[in-house]
Give the backbone structure.
Amino acid sequence: MRLEMRITELRADDLKLVLRLARTIWPAAYANVLTPAQIENLLDRIYSDENLRTEFAAGHRFWAAWQDTEPVGYASGYREGGIVWLKKLYVLPDRQGHGIGRALMESVIAGFAPVLDLRLFVNGNNIAAQRFYERTGFACIGEQAVRMGDYTFTDKIYRRISR
Ligand SMILES: CC(C)(COP(=O)(O)OP(=O)(O)OC[C@H]1O[C@@H](n2cnc3c(N)ncnc32)[C@H](O)[C@@H]1OP(=O)(O)O)[C@@H](O)C(=O)NCCC(=O)NCCS
């Protein structure tokens, strides 16, 4: 049975839902990319209530995807001059591959419209996500060292220009 899916924008008080989803999605998503200690450190640092509220107050907007009453994924983004950064994009492991990631991305684009230059950072070893971004119209435009939690990673920068 194919479940109906809907996407809503989140308010600051809804952000706990993002914390819960991240704790489920990250260990699976990064099992072959990060060590368990790195995953725990990054979850603690990035996915604290305080950090998400700080991002929200700085202009980051968040969306959740729902099937029935269950949240199944989330995305966030922010505008920096002429660039919109897709900051977070995560779907529950057992709901991936059914268009939810693409729909969340489209919600971010619609929310910040017009988006002429959409960019994101993706871990250099997260090959599955890179394939997804290439499939959805992005191209790699470079690499950058990125400090996250207590670690420095080499991320790839992907860009999608509106046609
Ligand atoms: C990356 C992610 C958000 C994609 O969401 P999703 O719901 O699984 O992807 P969708 O079903 O919307 O896929 C959209 C398109 O990309 C393709 N695609 C998705 N994952 C792919 C992969 N690993 N390799 C190749 N193509 C892929 C789909 O086949 C689909 O193509 P189509 O529309 O032409 O049929 C999701 O898989 C995820 O949460 N992964 C783990 C977390 C992560 O790495 N997030 C990114 C952090 S930067």
Q: What stands out?
A: The longest strand covers residues 70-80. The mean pLDDT is 96.
